[in-house]
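REQUEST FORM: STRUCTURE PREDICTION
Request ID: SP-0412
Submitted by: Lab K.M.
Chain count: 1
Length (residues): 161
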Amino acid sequence: MELNDRLDKFEKLVSNEPSNFLSKLEYYRANKSWLDKSAKVAINVLEALKQKGLSQKDLAQKMNVSAQQVNKILKGQQNLTFETISKLETALEISLIEIIDFKAADKPLDVSNTEERVNSALRQMKKAMPEVKKQVGGYERNIALGKDQKNPKTAPQFKNS
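STATUS: Completed
RESULT:
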């Protein structure tokens, strides 16, 4: 293939639209904390759906929300409200977050089963880590590329600042 042919093909691939990669990166950096938490919730919800043999449509019906809302949650880029988290927990019979009650300093802290709870959490984390690393790596690649490689129509939507 000659140089001119290659240049012609390259020019067909180049967009006249300016790239918005930097604005997407800025958005991700500014919102990294909640985006990471949302991705973790999405992973937990996906695992629960798999274990219970439920579809996204089933979950939407149990939560009394649209299938599109569930899809957004499962993409891991939804800034979830306590109401939505509560609906997820109820529908899937799981716990996604734990709110620690404020305790006055004069009351002793109950640590009777702390070691058991920590060991259980560590076992669950160890079991889930290979899949989490794989999914988070894919998530981070998609963020860096600004698209969902499996389905370009579902690329993450970022607000331009």
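NOTES: The longest helix spans residues 21-52.
Reviewed by: T.R.
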